[in-house]
Amino acid sequence: MLAAALLMSVLPANAPSALQAGADLPEAIEVRSHQGADGTEYKHLLVRPKEVKEGEKYPLVVFLHGAGERGSDPAVLAKHFFPAMLSEEYRERFPCFILAPQCPSEERWGSLDWRTGEDSGEMTDPLAAVRELVHDSLEEFPIDRDRLYLTGLSMGGYGTWDWTTREPDFWTAAAPICGAGNTEKAAQLKDLPLWVAHGDEDNAVPVERSREMVAAVVAAGGSPIYVEYPGVGHDSWTPAYGTPDGLVAWLFRQSRGSGNSKTQESKNQTP
Q1: Distance between CA atoms of 9 and 240, rounded to whole angstroms?
Q2: Whole-angstrom Cα distance, residue 192 to residue 171?
Q3: Chain Cα centroid distance, residue 88
Q4: Rounded CA gap, 226 and 210, in Å?
Q5: pLDDT tens for residues 1-57?
Q6: β partners of residue 29
Q7: What is the dihedral of CA 211, 19, 193, 258, to 10 degrees?
């Protein structure tokens, strides 16, 4: 048993469903572009809070998609995560800016190659471009720099582990879903609030990948929350993001200097 908050959960009955391929983007989503250091143009989605009040600052959520959403059509990025985040309940409860960048075909977010298990060690060009996008966004929008959240699924879970191990002090909290990381770098995350989720029947990214990272963070002195969904395959993001008082609610409770302790959160959280 991992020495972390292991929460065995079931699928919520009212989890938002994914948007269908070819569906029009919801009105709240803006399609924008940003450039990488090499001049490559990348697309990303932007969502602003339902109401931006003068003088107030809002959390930023960066969402990294999976391998199936790579390419040049940014509309596919709304397939996952957004059905939950754009629901009326979430829009009211969790006002925030959301950035969802798109990775080009045949590229990936993290330096860890899921096919070979080898880690190049270098930040990939797409992730470096997102890093610049985030820093530019901090200057463009009224973002609360004490509430910067990173999450991603599958390939985006790899990217979430990757980016946080490189810059653990930049992020307020992170939530890698059915991803994998380099366990040799996991000690960098011992002080970062983490919520990790995976389905125990995932045939695309084995559940052992999340278990290994969580165990490595725990061994370094961290207290990540780990949720493993019984009977769930490569779709653990649906219950993870779609449970109203689960991952997303926890994420928005994290704030630098607020007194929130990841250890206290782990002990108090219930499925």
Answers
A1: 10
A2: 8
A3: 21
A4: 8
A5: 444 555 545 444 444 444 444 457 899 999 999 988 888 899 999 999 999 999 999
A6: 47
A7: -160
